[in-house]
């Protein structure tokens, strides 16, 4: 009788743990949490951070400068599949998130960290590799910017804040 009780307790504990982990994982399968807005770090259990100097993920644009109100194409390329991501443009001067994304690929959605559409994240956990976006600069001058992306390869492995080259604001000193 005691063995049956222990087995039942173990089974209930296992079921609860599995259900809790599943619901926690499912919560992030539809995009990054707002709690990741400022540091771009995934909030998964026991994740393993890898160096932001990834040798297989790049984020870049074909523009070396922009003017206020410009639309800037942004491309993320990877030689490996990944499930999740968070993409932002930030001012070089103070690291604040800037601008809005106006074109997103399938499997992604807008997230409002500080202003509507200032961040893009995944909308499902389908495997991704090469993605294209369009970012719209604010109408007022904000200075030079960089694009940053955090990539979640699997539930336990991620790279945070991989950065693009500086995109200079044209027409300012």
From TrEMBL:
Origin: domain of life: Eukaryota
Keyword flag Signal: yes
Keyword field contains Hydrolase: no
UniProt KW keywords: Signal
Domain Reelin stretches: 22-173
InterPro entries noted in UniProt: Ferric-chelate_Red/DefProt, Reeler_dom, Reeler_sf
Range of residues in the leader sequence: 1-27
GO cellular component, one term: membrane
Protein name: RELD1 protein
Natural source organism: Alaudala cheleensis
